[in-house]
Amino acid sequence: MTQTTNPTTKLSILNLVPVRQGQTNKDAIDSMIALAKFAEQAGYHRYWIAEHHNTRSLVSSATQVLIGHTLSQTDRIRVGSGGVMLPNHSPLMVAEQYGTLATMYPDRVDLGLGRAPGTDPKTAAALRRHAHDISHQFPQDIADLQRYFGDDAVQSDVKAIPAIGTQVPLYILGSSTDSAYLAAKLGLPYAFASHFAPSLMPEALHIYRTHFVPSDVLDEPYVIIGCNAIVADSDQHAEYLATTQQQSFLNVVRGRGQPMQPPVDDMNAIWLPHEKAAVMHMTACSFIGGRDTVKAQLQAFQSRYQADELMVMSHIFDENLQQNSYQMLYDIVQDLNQTAKADLSS
User: Fold this and answer.
1) 14 Cβ contact list (under 8 Å, min separation 6)
2) Residue 71 belongs to what H/E stretch?
3) CA 148 to CA 145: how far, in whole Å?
4) Which residues belong to any copy of the Luciferase-like domain (predicted)?
5) Residue 5 domain flag
6) What is the three-class DSSP state of 344?
7) Is the pLDDT of residue 127 over 80?
8) Cα separation, 110 vs 107, whole angstroms
9) How remote is the C-alpha of 229 from its chain's centroid?
10) pLDDT interval class at 133 (50, 70, 90)
11) Which CATH number characterizes residue 224's domain?
12) How many CB atoms are located within 10 Å of the residue 9 CB?
């Protein structure tokens, strides 16, 4: 019998901490906390916050500060980075910061790691520890972090206090195939950023699963797929709400920093044909529609890719409608999981 979805599929949320039109930066952070509290109550597995710099529409530059704030305002949900862009940071400082968070909030902190700067070249140059590009040091930086979070027996003269022994779980993030090889070699969980760069996802997942080497933290591959989702009472309403997502990605294409915009009736009045093509390519990994439509989309997607976890981002302007979308999505995934478990046991 064909399995339609992974029976252990988890559902999580990725938040870039966007500033909606009419909001202040503080309002955006308050919205981040409100969504985290909702996610915990609804049953979402984890809540990750991204790292972006020099982007006026996103308030996610000091990721570790936002993660600490979110942990302090919630009780159970895992909170982490989606992710820390290691070329911008000293591994020692990252270990100190996240080791401190893990000490304050045991078994609730995740550390997602990326090798991109998360910003434009000039800002990347201002952030980096050295004048030259050090992204090639990504594997060594990860090895350093593993040591810093490890037990006393693996420490060197330089130690990250109080990170020792916290064993903060590491996740390798990627939007191309390079990190897939690395995650497989190290036996670490792999999260692919299909929510904005879906084209290489099939190849990257194949590489990761084919080359995976079991490790002390994982016996078999663990795949997290980033995706966009907008669920509403009808397909038509979801497609209308999705114009906020389309405008957000259009800002990326145009290199503009507009705040998140309310939905519009006609995107063709806003974008040019080549811009539309670029946005649709970037957002190809999106589940948009009413309950039945999204359920069918998810079934088809999981039948093909078998994600262990979906890391969802929902660009919806109205915060109540955003929460409704996340609730409906959660219910859909729970239904699919129950169906898959029943199929496996029959």
Assistant:
1) 48, 49, 50, 82, 195, 226, 311, 312, 313
2) helix 63-72
3) 5
4) 21-303
5) no
6) helix
7) no
8) 9
9) 13
10) low
11) 3.20.20.30
12) 19
Total residues belonging to the chain: 346
> Please, are residues 190 and 171 in contact by the beta-carbon 8 Å criterion?
yes
Q: Which residues contact 156 (CB under 8 A, 6 or more apart)?
A: 147
Q: Are 4 and 299 in contact (CB under 8 A)?
A: yes
Q: Number of structural domains, the chain?
A: 1
Closest C-alpha to 57, from 261, 232, 201, 195? 261
Contact 214, 220 (CB under 8 A): yes
- φ and ψ at 12, to 5 degrees? -135, 170
Residue with tokens 């594997």: 139
Confidence category of residue 4, pLDDT binned at 50, 70, 90 = very low
Residue 77 tokens, joined: 């949900």
Domain enclosing residue 295, as ranges:
10-345
94-121 pLDDT, tens digit each: 999 999 999 999 999 999 999 976 667 7
Three-state SS for 288-340 is EECHHHHHHHHHHHHHHHCCCEEEEECCCCCHHHHHHHHHHHHHHHHHHHHHH
How many CB atoms neighbour CB 273 within 10 A?
A: 8
Nearest to 123 by CA among 91, 93, 92, 88: 88
Instruction: Calculate the average pLDDT of the chain.
Output: 93
Of 6 and 70, the structure prediction assigns the larger pLDDT to 70
Evaluate whether residue 1 is within a structural domain: no
Residue 71 lies in a domain: yes
Cβ neighbourhood burial of 145 (10 Å; 0-12, 13-18, 19+): buried
Whether 279 is in a domain gets the answer: yes
DSSP class of 80: E
Interval 152-190: pLDDT, tens: 999 999 999 999 999 999 999 999 999 999 999 999 999
Those residues whose C-beta lies under 8 Å from the C-beta of residue 279, and which sit 6 or more positions away, are 246, 249, 250, 253, 271
> 99, 70 in Cβ contact below 8 A?
no
The model's pTM: 0.94
Distance between CA atoms of 193 and 175, rounded to whole angstroms? 5
| Contact yes or no for 111/98 (Cβ under 8 A) | yes
